[in-house]
Amino acid sequence: MRSEASFPLKLAAIGGLLFLHLPILLIFLYAFTTEERSFTFPPPGLTTEWFAVAWNRPDIWPALMLSLKVASLSTVLALILGTLIAAAMAGTRFFGREQISLLILLPIALPGVITGISMRSAFSILDIPFSTLTIVLGHATFCIVIVYNNVVARFRRLSGGILEASADLGANSFQTFRHVLLPNLGSALLAGGMLAFALSFDEVIVTTFTAGQQATLPIWMLEELVRPRQRPVTNVVAIVVFIATVLPILIAYFLTRGGSETAGAGK
Amino acid sequence: MSDAILPPRGLADRLTTLFWRHPRLLLTLLLTPPLVWLGVVYLGSLAALLLQSFYSIDEFSGLIVPEFTLKTYGELFRPSNADIIFRTLGMAIAVTIASAIIAFPIAYFAARHAKGGWKAVFYLGIMLPLWSSYLVKVYAWKLILAKEGILTWATEVTHTGWLLDAALSLPGVGGNSLSTSYIGTFLTFTYVWLPFMILPMQAALERVPTSMLEASADLGATARQTFRTVVLPLAMPGIVAGSIFTFSLTLGDYIIPQIIGTSAAFIGMAVYQLQGTAGNLPLAAAFAVVPIVIMLVYLALAKRAGAFDAL
Are B128 and B14 in a shared domain? Predict the structure, then answer.
């Protein structure tokens, strides 16, 4: 029995969805405004000059490059570590399994500020100077769970029979991994990697604690929000960040669509 | 028959045999790198945080004194610091309740009524805002709430400016404009964390068996009674699970109150400012322990409510 939804319910549901999406459109609109000091609505005029201005700003490129570098490194590390845990946790039951699953979840279950200040404390106690590596340390830690969630779901769906069949046919563990396991995990790995990349590219809370004087693109944006210069330029960068996070998410969705473990159901 | 068994050919085969005979060995090999990472980098850092919070700062030199003391925790109870903690708690509670109310119809519709294409629209419609850039979303609300922004314009067009003025003149939560008031902070928090509430709610609602609703109707319950006595109790673990996220995220956030709202500090802001400009790492660490303790209590209560089955 699936009765038709009542009108107020429909209205509240669709209104809620619009509430989630309309604010983003304003970011796009204000990237074209001619007014650079305030957020006057409606914009007094429209122009595309800010895209050229943003392109020529020398401070944006290094920030973008650093963000790409950090996100790529963190994604690779998270892919390796997340897949290893997923492989261990999928088939076997062992002492401490519950504790390990809690440990993986903790970096995103606790507020980001705690991960940030913890790492900041550790760097301070051990006298570790800030570098790209210190940013990656933080990012990879909270990206592990994203990869893990995607890959462990695929492992669960994968019948253990095919691994046994591979062994019965004479393949060793490495051949089984290369020819049976990897092709089956492929899209889950890609989806997990995409989500991890999106999460890292956009991360700002942990980064402010682990970056020192370096600026990733989100940190550049945060500084512009606190001390605005050319406001529409911030919007142009915001559009870039938005697209750089939404595209991987969409790809991850279409990669895993239809399965019981569609990517992104939990962050 | 022994001819049928192939002789070992190389290292890879010998390792395979070893793994087969000792499954624990493979498990250990798989788990060691990630556990070393999480153990050293993450738990090590948390330990450093705890350690740091038991240190104190020398008032004259401004240097950290690495000796065990409870003095830093004592400072949390100073009125100005206690205010920060209660302000943050109040905001977290308000945001959690508001997101639960807004999220419920969306989750309910997505779980029980959306079919085919609509199902995909709702799925992506909830997932995209969940994952898309946090900072971009906060910025969008700065644009919306600005004094000269779209919301003021909308109230002028619809002649409801008095409503906005009334809200802004409310004592305690009002302010000069929405972007410099607690109302603004509250709206932004609610918007940004809303998807975190919808998803677990939706998952819980999807698990409510239709047979139970039919049984309830067969026994003569009205739609309202079915909702109150069947759907809501069964959806409760999902609501509690969602509230873990909204609550924890609000407790720790420091970007939103920094960009939108009064300049009054929240726990996250206190942590950030104390470790940065003030250079008082021990007090920052002690402040960071507060949300951990609150969340541990909250998680213990949520576990009792069965929220973890809904995650």
Answer: no
Same domain, B144 and B24: no
- Chain A, residues 43-72, CB within 8 A of chain B, namely none
Name the DSSP class of A177. Answer: I
Least CA distance to A174: which residue of chain B? B12
User: How far is it, in rounded angstroms, from Cα A120 to Cα A206?
Assistant: 9
Closest partner residue to A266 among B46, B199, B213, by Cβ?
Answer: B199
pLDDT tens by residue, B51-98: 888 988 887 777 788 888 888 898 888 888 999 999 999 999 999 999
| Record: contact B106-A241, CB cut-off 8 A | no
Contacts of residue A187, Cβ cutoff 8 Å, sequence gap at least 6: A255, A256
Q: Is residue B64 part of a domain?
A: no
Chain A and chain B share a number of CB contacts under 8 A equal to 283
pLDDT at A262: 55
- How many structural domains are present in chain B? 2
As a whole number of Å, the end-to-end CA separation of chain B is 52
How many domains does chain A contain in total? 1
Interface test with B, best of A1, A25, A125, A180 (most B CBs within 10 A): A125
Residue ranges making up the domain that contains B181: 75-310
- The Cα–Cα gap between A169 and A64 comes to 49
Shortest Cα distance, chain A CAs vs residue B170, angstroms: 25
CATH number at residue B167: 1.10.3720.10
Q: Give me the CATH number covering residue A149.
A: 1.10.3720.10
Can you give the residue range of the structural domain that contains A140? 57-256
Tell me whether residues B153 and A175 touch, CB distance under 8 A: no
Check whether residue B146 and residue B210 sit in a common domain: yes
Same domain, B8 and B113: no
Instruction: With respect to residue B146, please indicate whether it lies within any of the assigned structural domains.
Output: yes
Residue B244 with chain A: CB contacts under 8 Å: 109
Tens digits of residue pLDDT in B233-264: 888 888 888 898 898 889 988 899 988 888 88
The band of B4, judged by pLDDT with boundaries at 50, 70 and 90, is low
Tell whether A2 is covered by a domain. Answer: no
Spatial neighbors of A231 by CB under 8 A, at least 6 apart, are A30, A36, A37, A38, A39, A224
Clarify whether residues B142 and B206 are in a common domain. yes
B234, with CB counted inside 10 A (0-12, 13-18, 19+), is middle
Whole-prediction pTM: 0.85
Closest CA to A106 of A141, A70, A149, A148: A141
**Would you place residue B106 in the very low, low, confident or very high pLDDT band (cuts 50, 70, 90)?**
very high
